[in-house]
Amino acid sequence: MSSSKVYYDYSSFSNGTSFMDAYNNFNQVPNLNFVEKLWASYYYYMNNDLFATGLLFFVTHEFFYFGRCLPWAIIDRIPYFRKWKIQDEKIPSDQEQWECLKSVLTSHFLVEAFPIWFFHPLCQKIGISFDVPFPSISQMLLQLAVFFVLEDTWHYWFHRGLHYGVFYKYIHKQHHRYAAPFGLAAEYAHPIEVALLGLGTVGIPILWCIITGNLHLFTVSVWIVLRLFQAVDSHSGYEFPWSLHHFLPFWAGADHHDEHHHYFIGGYSSSFRWWDYFLETEAGPKGKAAREAKMRKQAEKLQKKTI
Ligand SMILES: [Zn+2]
Ligand SMILES: [Zn+2]
């Protein structure tokens, strides 16, 4: 019998050591959906919750990061898609992509593979649950929306700080090596930057749980996957007529972040456009034109007052 705390009552379970045995046991538990059964079977089968969480998060990160990068790497090789490339004269060379891949993999194994093993004990300490059944979908969606908004705020301020003098020179410059980004370049960054901006992704759910006492590890994993997709897509270098920001005008997307890599100044947020809009830090000619129009309006107003 497994010692996992993923479920509270194994008394009706039959013995067996394979993953399928575990799944067949959870299949008998009423009111569990397919994903909950898979999740519970995994923990039950692993029989070591700390190791199971560490492995799950490491594999999830690798699988979804590179899985999401792959279509962009393929699209880069198909001339048909060139018409939607934002900086169409700059297609990353094989050499550039290979060097980026090596660096990202090194960072994953050296910087992230270590702290990931402390995640389960931390979850237990602050009360992030991992048992089945999961919380309701509406609760998960609400928490995901909060994480997106808060992470974007964290990202805006720390990213803006990283563009300041010495921080840029010694830390953030590495990420700006590619003036025309590509998917794989999303996590191409100095280890300090990976830790600092990564803290926004992982630290916000932790803080949320400390304050509310209500968070499930499955929600955290969905959040990390969505945040990975957001980061990879914003570095893709492609702007399609069906890109999300055409339907959600406050969504940043590749259109927003490509300008940041192109012009180096402005466009500091990750998921949304509001911080850059209200603090007048939008990048590129479009941002400059908007700022100038705003200044002109203010000057005209002032002139009218003095007449
Ligand atoms: Zn930057
Ligand atoms: Zn970037």
TrEMBL record:
Subcellular location: Membrane
Gene: ERG25
A single GO molecular function term of this UniProt record: iron ion binding
Protein name: Methylsterol monooxygenase
Alphabetized InterPro entries for the sequence: Fatty_acid_hydroxylase, Sterol_Desaturase_Related
Keyword list, A-Z: Membrane, Monooxygenase, Oxidoreductase, Transmembrane, Transmembrane helix
Alphabetical GO biological process terms: lipid biosynthetic process
GO cellular component, one term: membrane
Transmembrane intervals: 50-75, 178-199, 205-226
Pfam family, one: FA_hydroxylase
Domain Fatty acid hydroxylase: 145-281
